[in-house]
Design a protein that fits this description.
It is a single chain. By secondary structure, the protein is of the alpha+beta class. It folds into two domains: 104 residues, Tumour Suppressor Smad4 (Sandwich), CATH 2.60.200.20; 30 residues. It has two helices and eleven strands, in the order βββββββββββαα. Strands 2-1-11-10-7-8 form a six-stranded antiparallel sheet, with no helix packed on it. The protein starts with 9 loop residues before the first strand and ends with a helix.
């Protein structure tokens, strides 16, 4: 699998090929303050965060509107493994890099021989799952408009409220004007 020079795990966006080498605390989202900015209306301003737990990379959803998924299953938090398909909103990423090494120390005992597991037809299962997820992503409606209002700043919320009030006032005076035009003098 492809890795960065240091052997880091990275997410590769499927539609444009952009790469994001994972770092502790890295946040994916639409906001320019995020370490990994993803411009797509299905992505929340602060969508998901990367955490390193016991040597294993995890993706943690930050309460996004459209959620996060690993291999087609929506989850709030999940470990990242090379070969996984990660979906943030409607944007798909492939996880590439080295699998984490076992960090548990070996016990002082006689070695235990374990019979190797027979190979599983992973390629067929993975390809079918990817095809299903691609079809689901094509048919998924993307959010439009303001996105998640909870993630807007106070000044933006105030602006949205002001526009809504102005629209209501315009409707009120528009109805009065039309009523005066229709009724005889």
């Amino acid at each position: 699998m492809a890795t960065t020079e240091e052997g880091k795990v990275k997410l590769i966006r499927r539609d444009d090929g952009s790469e994001h080498a994972l770092e502790e605390g890295m946040v994916f989202g639409r906001s320019p303050q995020c370490q990994a900015t993803v411009s797509d209306s299905s992505i929340s301003r602060r969508h998901a965060q990367v955490e390193l737990r016991d040597g294993q990379w995890w993706m943690v959803d930050l309460g996004s509107s459209n959620g996060s998924a690993r291999n087609g299953r929506k989850e709030n938090a999940f470990p990242l493994q090379p070969g996984d398909l990660v979906t943030l909103g409607a944007v798909a990423f492939d996880v590439q890099g080295k699998a984490p090494a076992a960090t548990a120390p070996l016990a002082d005992s006689d070695p235990i021989e374990v019979a190797p597991e027979p190979p599983k037809p992973v390629a067929d299962v993975a390809e079918k799952e990817r095809a299903r997820i691609r079809a689901e992503l094509r048919n998924q409606k993307r959010s439009a408009g303001l996105g998640d209002l909870d993630q807007l700043s106070f000044s933006m919320k105030l602006g949205v409220f002001a526009v809504a009030v102005l629209v209501l006032i315009g409707v009120y005076y528009g109805v009065q004007f039309l009523g005066n035009m229709i009724s005889p003098p």
